[in-house]
From TrEMBL:
Cofactor: pyridoxal 5'-phosphate
Domain Tryptophan synthase beta chain-like PALP: 101-421
Listed GO MF terms: threonine synthase activity
Name under which the protein is recorded: Threonine synthase
Family of the protein in this entry: Belongs to the threonine synthase family.
Record flagged with keyword Lyase: yes
Broad enzyme group: lyase
Taxonomic source organism: Hominiventricola aquisgranensis
Domain Threonine synthase N-terminal: 5-80
Taxonomic superkingdom: Bacteria
EC identifiers of the protein: 4.2.3.1
Length: 497
């Protein structure tokens, strides 16, 4: 049976998966959601014996029903290959009393690779299926990790161009270096004077500009998105929660049917929403613990039912979670409103006009799967130092935020359910924050790349390729613009005036 996707704001007829992926954002500004969440069709025992690629096929075939078996397997096998530095793709590390699901073994050492290494294949396949003649221009706002992962995925992919906007002063030095050294004739990287929310709002405004879309169409271009608002990002992320459960079962850490909890360091709410979808598919997940840093909008939301972005934007050592507008939350809002597009519209309008909205008690009652915790900068740094001191395992700051949240959850609830913590970045991506957390006095004055070598010494973990590559790579992208000039910058790049 064909699974169709409709906009959370409900204006238009539902579309196929491939069309939803091509479009990125729905025309009415809403996000595409599947009409229902399919149930897994094979047993847990079968899943336990599968490779990552086989698991991906079992999950994705249920969501992307208009892709043929051949197309889907081609996409999966092209994405999850030697770009990953381990055959298991997403290993689990048992450290103290939790299982860290390491999602950072791909080309750019952040979990964004899990979805962005397959998105270009899903998208170019979708373009072929739908007889699209235009070049696809991927427009992306990044808080640091999406940008590089999308650039790496789309660089030199025929029929595509990619433009990435990042907050000039809001990413780590290594994140910035990774992006501005990006190769590929179809890649453009721009720093903006502003924060991630400014970049994301600017991109959404460009998507919503019908005049511009017409001009581009005449020039042979159409936009799509590589942000997690694209359903083609979300579906591949469900896979690793299914896989993690199956691997815990295979290794005898859990029994078939045993409930696990999941803790996710959260920004745009994509990763944790994928875990929620995995639960709907039939994976026995109990609580979804949503971890925030000092930008704790989601923590407040889960406590009070009010989403309020009217607060200072705080730059932290976990920049990929420095977000006040979590786009994917809209998918959950739509669902708990009973797939009511007009309610969703009303709340999203309030968010854009007043910067806040409040959900009804009836909606709140459906949030019992979720709980929110947050960690301060100090708690995060202490966590990195403590886990390293006790076990030798080095956490990146995002994962450390999740680890703190998990610790607080257990202290509050005494719930000892086995827990998977999504480990979203390699510590090498945030070397300075990590090393200063471990010993500020010793490491505080060293250069970024000296710190890389020190991290290698203390952790015994090989320096990833992604880091070796940028040690000497020349800067290729130097454009910086104001948030207000993003549209003009896009036109200039594309030669559309
Ligand atoms: C993007 C990112 C997050 C946040 O994930 P969302 O899906 O946006 O909630 C957390 N940690 C790291 C390292 C990231 O790159």
């Amino acid at each position: 049976m064909e699974l169709l996707y409709r906009s959370t704001r409900g204006a238009k007829e539902p579309v196929t998966a491939s069309k939803a992926i091509l479009q990125g954002l729905a025309e009415d500004g809403g996000l595409f959601v599947p009409d229902s969440i399919p149930k897994l069709t094979c047993s847990m025992e079968q899943l336990a014996g599968m490779t990552y690629q086989e698991t991906a096929y079992e999950v994705m075939k249920l969501f992307l029903t208009d892709y043929t078996e051949e197309e889907l397997k081609y996409c999966i096998n092209s994405a999850y290959d030697k770009k990953f530095d381990t055959d298991v793709i997403a290993p689990l590390a048992k450290v103290e009393d939790a299982y860290y699901l390491e999602l950072f073994h791909g080309a750019t050492i952040a979990f964004k690779d899990m979805a962005l290494s397959i998105l270009p294949y899903l998208m170019t396949t979708a373009a072929k299926k739908n007889q699209v003649k235009n070049d696809i221009v991927i427009l992306t706002a990044t808080s640091g990790d999406t940008g590089k992962a999308a650039l790496a995925g789309f660089a030199d992919v025929p029929g595509t161009k990619i433009i990435v906007f990042y907050p000039k002063n809001g990413v780590s030095p290594i994140q910035e270096k990774q992006m501005v050294t990006q190769k590929g004739d179809n890649t453009f990287v721009v720093g903006i004077h502003g924060n991630f929310d400014d970049a994301q709002s600017g991109v959404k405004a460009i998507f919503g500009n019908k005049e511009l879309a017409k001009e581009l169409d005449q020039a042979g271009y159409q936009f799509s998105s590589a942000n997690s608002i694209n359903i083609g990002r979300l579906v591949p992320q469900i896979v690793y929660y299914v896989y993690a459960y199956a691997k815990l079962l295979e290794s005898g850490e859990i029994k078939d049917g045993e409930t696990i909890n999941v803790t996710v360091p959260t920004g745009n709410f994509g990763n944790i929403l994928a875990a929620y979808y995995a639960k709907q598919m039939g994976i026995p997940i109990g609580k979804l613990i949503c971890a925030s840093n000092d930008n704790k909008v989601l923590y407040d939301f889960f406590r009070t039912g009010e989403y309020d972005r009217n607060r200072p934007f705080i730059l932290t050592t976990s920049p990929s979670m420095d977000i006040l507008i979590s786009s994917n939350l809209e998918r959950l809002i739509y669902r708990i409103a009973g797939a009511d597009a007009s309610k969703d519209q009303e709340l999203m309008k309030a968010l854009s006009e007043q910067g806040k909205y409040e959900i009804t008690d009836k909606m709140r009652a459906q949030l019992h799967d979720f709980c929110g915790y947050y960690a301060s900068e100090d708690e995060t740094a202490k966590k990195i130092a403590k886990v390293y001191g006790d076990t030798g395992y080095v956490l990146d700051p995002h994962t450390a935020v999740a680890s703190c949240a998990y610790e607080k959850y257990v202290a509050d609830t005494k719930d000892k359910t086995k827990t998977v913590i999504a480990s979203t970045a390699s510590p090498y991506k945030f070397t300075r924050s990590v090393m200063e957390a471990i010993d500020k006095e010793k490491y505080g004055s060293m250069s970024d790349f000296d710190l890389v070598d020190e991290l290698n010494k203390i952790s015994g973990v090989d320096v990833p390729n992604a880091i070796e590559e940028i040690r000497t790579a020349p800067v290729r992208h130097k454009t910086v613009c104001d948030a207000a000039d993003m549209e003009q910058t896009v036109k200039t790049f594309l030669g559309v005036e």
